[in-house]
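okkk here we go again. third time trying to get the thiamine diphosphate bound version out, last two times i messed up the smiles copy paste (missing a bracket lol). double checked this time i swear
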Amino acid sequence: MATVRDATYDVLRTLGMTTVFGNPGSTEEPFLRDFPADFHYVHALHEATAVAMADGYAQAAGVPAHVNLHTAPGTGNGMGNLVTAWHNKTPLIITAGQQTREMLLLEPRLTSRRATELPQPYVKWAYEPARAQDIPGAVLRAYATAVQPPAGPVFLSLPMDDWAQPAEPAPEMRSVATRFGPDPRRLDEFARILAGSRNPVLVFGPGVDRSGSWSEAVALAERLAAPVWSAPAPERAVFPEDHPHFRGVLPFAIGPLAEALSGHDTVLVVGAPVFRYYPYVPGEHLPSGTRLLHVTDDPDEAARAPVGDSLLGDPGLTLAALLELLPQADRTPPAPRATQAAPDISTPLSADALFAALAGHWPADGVLVQESPSNLAALRRRLRITRPASYFTMASGGLGYGLPAAVGVALAERDTGRGRPVVAVIGDGSFHYSVQALWTAARLSLPVVVVVPVNKQYAILKAFAELKETPGVPGLDLPGLDITAIAAGYGCATEVVQTPDQLGAALTAGLRADRPTVVPVPISTEVPSIL
Ligand SMILES: Cc1ncc(C[n+]2csc(CCOP(=O)(O)OP(=O)(O)O)c2C)c(N)n1
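finally!!
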């Protein structure tokens, strides 16, 4: 007799979801028992790590990922990175154990009280099946919900006594659309406005990368002879950053962002929120007289934009449709950005010198995962991303994503056979939020290189305190942390680097190794301005 457990593994198999990221508990053991040989359990030592590894894996492999968490405490531990997965628009199916139905009324130990409310509002759907027999169908519905636009995480709470119950006939396998095209009438209107603009500017967001449409984005920029910005604080790179039209990443504050767009009569934003701001710097959302057109596949993103007219549609399909309608603009294309002077080499290195060295040794098909808050501007200034799907960070602002995400990306590179080298740049503060990911990377023999700029402080919080005039904040210094010892304890190779040449050697060796390598680099403690 087939059980609910058998039927659920069959559904997961049919969906191609045979990798399970998790940390097990008693409420999950009835699901995990006799773990099938054709499935891979990726063991995380902490649930935050499990969720972010799955997120990185899903984004790099371009598939939804499954995370199995412990009941309420495990789900709680995973919550920070669940918030990030929601903002990242990463399709994740989170399953969590629940106490046995027989005892739920009296709330025994490990009951998840109001289990479906716990992950709200950072899931698209949360459900505890009314009957054990509904689990396979609920997994199918969870999958459909997670992958449809806007993609995102979903949550199932699954009582531990359900798995041994007899299954009903398997649910009908169905397919669902993951992209939708724009309304043709509204599209015509957008094309007409763009064609009639004197000096349009393009702002591309992570949706362009998620929809695999860099080539359409480049074609539109060239068709309109328009400069291109990345939307502020992007979680993915959106355009070849060595292209002459590329201007950089927009500032993430109201006044400065509007200033960067001044002189343009039309702004076309594709695949991003309007806009992702962080420090409050008052001002107008747009320069006066500028019109904003917003293309997104997320109705909520369109609804909350403070300015602009929106068109719902997949970024890639909409860019392709605009290209059908727009003639070649008769304008001088924007001139390329000035090349940067080489940074001074000092001891310790400046962030600029570190990242210039990283760029100098960068593998052509390298993937960068980043969580280095105060050094982000220097990193993005020095290391230009020129290929799609090769830059990942968190959209949320929550630390503890980058390190485990890099491990998930590296696993996806191996599983897909693509094998691109993965380098993470993780601040010495950010390093500690999900540091256990190093152990999983070591167990899986993943050759990920983790560069840690060591400034022994939460520098960005010092910069924020300066901007917002809040002196005397405690807890902004990080003395007494031995990154080398911590990394070695989790099974990593480590090498402290002081010079650009040493970095090149460490990178080459680390990317060829059969385990992760952590590379602490002491850097200047100067605090860069936040804007
Ligand atoms: C989960 C979480 N906790 C706290 C913060 C607040 N926070 C933002 S940046 C930061 C410091 C990061 O330090 P580090 O990684 O060393 O980078 P640096 O600013 O020095 O470049 C902190 C604590 C956060 N964003 N997310």
